[in-house]
Amino acid sequence: MEEGAINMPHKRRQKAEIEIFPQALRHPQQVSSAQENDHQASSPNGSLIATEYSPSLDQLRATFYHGQVDVGARDGSLQALWQLLFKVNLLLPLRSLLRWNFSDREAARLLQGPSFVTPQETSLDAGSSQQEFIQITIEEPRPHEYRALCAPLLQAALRGNWRAAKAFLKQHPRCVRVAITKEQGTALHYAAAAKRTRFVEELVKLMTPLDLELKTTEGWTALCFAAQSGKVRIAEEMVKRNNKLPCIRTNQGTTPLQIAASVGRKNMVFYLLSATRLEQLSMGERVELFLATISTNMYDISLEILSKDPKLATSEAGYGWKALEELAKKPDAIGSKSSNGLWNKALMKTLAHQLVEALWKEFEKFSDDQSSSSNVVHNPMALLVEAIKVGNIEFVVILLRSNPDLMWQLDKKRGSLFHIAVAHRQESVFTLIHELGTLKDSIASYSLENNNNMLHLAGQLAPSDRLNLISGPALQMQRELLWFKEIKKMVPPSHVNEKNSEGETPRDILMRTHKELQKNAERWIKDKASSCMIVATLIATVVFTAIFTVPGGYNQNTGIPILLNESAFSVFSASSVIAFMSSSSSILMFLSMLTSRYTEEDLRKWLPAGLVFGLILLFISIVGLVVAFVATGSLVYWVNQKIDSTGKYYIGESVVYDANLIPLFACVPISLFVLSHYGLWLDIIRSAYFSRFLFWKRKRRIF
């Protein structure tokens, strides 16, 4: 017989046995040996057997809906059984269906899953006994039925509407723990993911500790979603209810602590780390957590983990080395490029320094230990290469202070660390060469395996990530020429025209690799100059006309401007002259840029400086034009008008405008021009005037 079936065999005028085998309830009960023998073929172990006359389907409806049977039943065991089934909510899903006055077959058809076999009239032979059955198969509702039923609960969880969820759960209390989505997520999963703190607090009160361990198809508990969302209060409520949750893994073997660390939820990581002992995590999980805190810039937590488990730095698997490799690639965290505010920047830099130093000290201690295996400590030069590529000067300094000999270490494939700095255009690292004294000459003269010297490397095109840090092809070309000139001064004269294994000199490589960039630089400068010259020409035309068409007109007898003695007229005259002269000078400057020869010297010096001067003159002309407009407006409304004490202009009895608004409106075009061009100005000024200090000797960092 199928599990979950209620078989009700009955004889006419005789007692019958009722066998109930619910899926969710299995409590053994003593029965007579004769009854056990009669039903051993069809009754599984653990069945409940009670004696009663066969109830009709109407009685079953009453039983399902009211939770009790007819009080006139001869044996009270059936009534107690039905009440017990209701206490465990086994029959609750069928209540809403059986409450209606369906016929036996209609109820069976509508229930789809549960099946009914109604009593049949059969003839009885003399001396024989014939049993008839009413069979009811109690099954769990299908998943899609629960999803449809619990859709309001899911919406309430996502919105954080506890009032609606409370009303729903009052009618369907079992839905607090059932899967309400295809991914087997409960209401708690989605409330935690949606950061609904109050909703979770109230929902957890209705759940058992085991309910909090329910997982989705991916093996995620509700605490995993809380860890990902970063809401510490939600996690606290769950862990307070079930302190085993922090150690429950997903299907991929990930803990909530690792999930929080991987997405950078710092406060959540702090809390879960306090709720989880490191001894409960495997070595692999500790390593993953350690590396995740480094990649998300949580260096204080990384230091705490390392202090609790120093073996992470020197384990045979090289986990500490992986951490150093990760730190070597993070110049924004260790170096001076962080943009998270002065305080955060200083704190991050300090913590990162401490972490690198702590890891490196563990490596040095381990390498000095004679009993340790030599294959654990890797080549520090590999770390330096990664740090130099991204310009992580602070990391380079920390390692070089511990291993100064790395500064002059050479190999045929990569050269020295200064050759790497030249190839990747890292001037902050390259300037360390000045601390070597006379040793820098021998390093600068070193050639690689393909006979490329340092000047050959400077002639090659810079990596795209370094070029893109500079605005515009012209400024990029200018920076490349500055590198070539600086290295040319440092290498021996014999290396300037030395050919490599492919027969190319450094200048040949420079011209070949930068040919496209030089064309783009020329096109970029011409486009900028043409656009700016058009604007400057318009300004010059307008201002020239305004100078000879003064506001207020001229005296017909004397030819002198009528408003000559007004202070605003002097402002108008001066600003018009300044605007005209600056716009004219700007036109000449941009015209000379259009007719330039675009030689190497022009691209390196004259064109960036000319672009700076042209833009400055254009800005001055725009300011002069705006000031002239403000002065003209004041003069026009000065005639036959008056200003009261509040600053309002009157013509007759009508208010024209507020005088204080004139300068305010005048600032709008000037502000727009500055905001749209200040970045370009800074880049051009930096390239034209401050790039000469790019390779200057700086304060000593190593020795």
TrEMBL record:
UniProt keyword Heme, yes or no: no
Q: What is the top-level taxon of the source organism?
A: Eukaryota
The name this protein carries in UniProt is PGG domain-containing protein
> Which keywords, in A-to-Z order, does the entry hold?
Membrane, Transmembrane, Transmembrane helix
Name the residue ranges with Polar residues bias: 29-49
Boundaries of each PGG domain copy? Answer: 523-633
**GO CC terms in record:** membrane
Q: Where is this region: Disordered?
A: 27-49
Which spans are transmembrane here?
A: 529-548, 568-594, 606-639, 659-682
Q: Which PANTHER family match?
A: ANKYRIN REPEAT FAMILY PROTEIN-RELATED (PTHR24177:SF292), CASKIN (PTHR24177)
